[in-house]
Task: structure prediction
Amino acid sequence: MIKVKNLYHSYKKDDIYQVKDVNFEVEEGEIFGFLGPSGAGKTTVQNILTGLLEIHKGQAEVAGYDMKNISKDMFNKIGMSFEQSNVYSKLTALENLKFYAKLFDVETRDPKDLLKLVGLEDKANMRAGEFSKGMKHRLTFVRSMINNPIMWFLDEPTTGLDPSIAADIKNIIREKNKQGVTIFLTSHNMFIADELCHRVAFIVDGEIKLIDSPRNLKLQYGDKMIEVDYIKDGENINDSFSTILNEDKKKLKEIIDNYEIQTMHSKEASLEEIFIKVTGRGLV
Ligand SMILES: Nc1ncnc2c1ncn2[C@@H]1O[C@H](COP(=O)(O)OP(=O)(O)OP(=O)(O)O)[C@@H](O)[C@H]1O
Ligand SMILES: [Mg+2]
Result:
């Protein structure tokens, strides 16, 4: 669905590149996460892949369209939700969606249904300029679904949203993906990437450092240990055991067979810890 080869971008058109030799592919039906700290180049790559910025070097193909020769038809197939809400302040939420729908040559979704999806049905006739940041963000998000895109670009889809709305947005993303929509998700939030993405790319200073599934990364970088909290002779004991060493496995089995287990956890690394290990940088 996306093929990117040796991609470079320089905002000043000089030889200082904000995106450097980026290579990756996104399969149809995949949720692909682009993870990196602020200023890493995530939005720049998304903007190239959605035709908002030109390619300076390299190649990019999106949904079968060559991004060097953008066809208007491509915009009917893709959806883009922006990091910064860019809705029309003087139009109401409903007018914003109705106006946007007119830009497409394909069947579009009912704006009222979309507003309902993100809990804005009661605000349909309120001017977007009077919306809070989170409300504008929801409107921008839902607007990106109006043309039933097969390829959906989401730049920081849950940033600045309260936990319950963020959970709704995550469910919508999962649901769309189940229906076959391919998703390119940009974030510096490792939790959303871990929860939603089939694969993630780590990007720092415009360069991709690694691409893999969150599961593989956690298996590769996590400690092969299990931490157990159990009660022995009325006393609460906390201990860790290797999941590789036979001796430890035996001890663990003995504890499970004989004592009351309170909690038991595998000590997998979080994506954030892995990111720091791999790139030497934090995610903010
Ligand atoms: N319009 C612009 N003109 C010049 N430089 C820019 C412009 N937009 C971004 N940059 C620079 O390009 C680099 C990458 O920025 P980008 O917005 O792609 O980062 P990001 O990974 O999306 O960060 P964030 O997590 O803060 O959204 C940064 O060094 C930034 O200063
Ligand atoms: Mg960004």
In short: The first strand starts at residue 2 and ends at 9. The pocket of magnesium ion (ligand 2) is lined by residues 42-43, 83, 155 (CB under 6 Å).
